[in-house]
Amino acid sequence: MRLLQDSIDGIRFYHRPGFSDLKAFEEVVGRKVYLKHGLKILPGEKWMDCGGNVGAFTLLACSLGAEVTVYEPDPFNADMIERNLRLNGYSATIKQAALVHDDRESTILHIGNSNQVWRNSIVTKWNEKGIRVPCLNFDHEARPFDCCKMDIEGAEMPILENTAAIFKKLVYEWSFDVDPSLPRIRRVIERQQQLYKVKVRANCLPGAKGSVWKSSWFPLCTDVTCLAK
What we know:
By secondary structure, the chain is an alpha/beta fold. The protein has a single domain (4-228), classed as Rossmann fold (3-Layer(aba) Sandwich), CATH 3.40.50. Helices cover 24% and strands 28% of the residues. The chain is built from 6 helices and 12 strands. The strands form 3 sheets. Strands 5-4-3-9-10-12-11 form a 7-stranded mixed β-sheet, sandwiched between helices. Strands 6-8-7 form a 3-stranded mixed β-sheet. Helix 1 (21-30) packs parallel to helix 2. The relative contact order is 0.14. The mean pLDDT is 93.
């Protein structure tokens, strides 16, 4: 497959024409969508990158001096992460597996429509394209880490509802087109507020009324930042 090379803020990367790869780097490295509400990545921190996609967050964290283990179930995306790490001279541990809240050994990864591989999901079946991938238990994997970024297209919620892991920093994205239940995410946030200072994207969740996110509302996702008290 033909690869293009580009760079943003000094971080170089390969991306596949017609895929969501470039948009991922523009959002994560260019606009730094995860570095909000006082969240910073510091040298020496041990970050768990859940849902690595093509490595944008991993490269950003490595560039800031963090140690990173990245979890990405799609073998083709995992190969892109490895290529992008080598391109920048960075080192990170790559685990080609899906993170789950239980002890299943494998599952089907459903591939995003129209090469939107940042929407790959073990929860939502976008189409008939899917591959079987290995699984790892989140709580078992989380033990060595100080910090966690999570964007796993629907698998976040059962993990966040059940995990015993506590981090110094946790940031995740929740997509309402995957699960529109407002009470469910509210319960998760209320649980997190017992442990963290929690910030939700302004005008997104707190002001939403009712029990179901409406498809006409924007944006269709929200970022939640949790910092240890």
